[in-house]
Amino acid sequence: MKKLALFAPTVALAAACSGSAVTMQPGQWEHTMQFTSIEAPGVPEAQLAMMRQQMGQARTESSCLTPEQAAHPTGTMLNPGGSQNCQFSENVFAGGTIRVHGTCQQPGGASAQMNMDGTYTATTMNVQLSSEMTMPPGMPGPRSLRMSGTMSGRRTGDCPAGR
Questions:
Q1: What is the tally of structural domains in the chain?
Q2: Who wins on pLDDT, 69 or 63?
């Protein structure tokens, strides 16, 4: 689903930021994200039920967190590929606490307000997520999309050779 793809890159932030005595360890990380609530005012109930079914399924991905990303993750993780312009009113990833609240402008004029609140250790993380996306006038589909859910992560070992 395209709307999930717009939100997912920003969630990578929660798996990579550091900056305190508790630092996430570099290595291979597995992340599981699941949306538990999806609202899209004005969308027919049948279409909304399909969105909830697709986006409500837990999705697990694995990625390598390099030592450089663990030491200085903000530039690449907040704005992967330079595709988003994000402003954060709160950006705390320290002392085992995750509290990230901000707004990102998406390509095409859409914007997304995001909130992540949770905890982490050197090898685990648990986050409550919420997002509200607003589409620009003239784009097909709902004007807004609200989602909330959870994300968990755990370090599974070293990165594969060559990464």
A1: 1
A2: 63
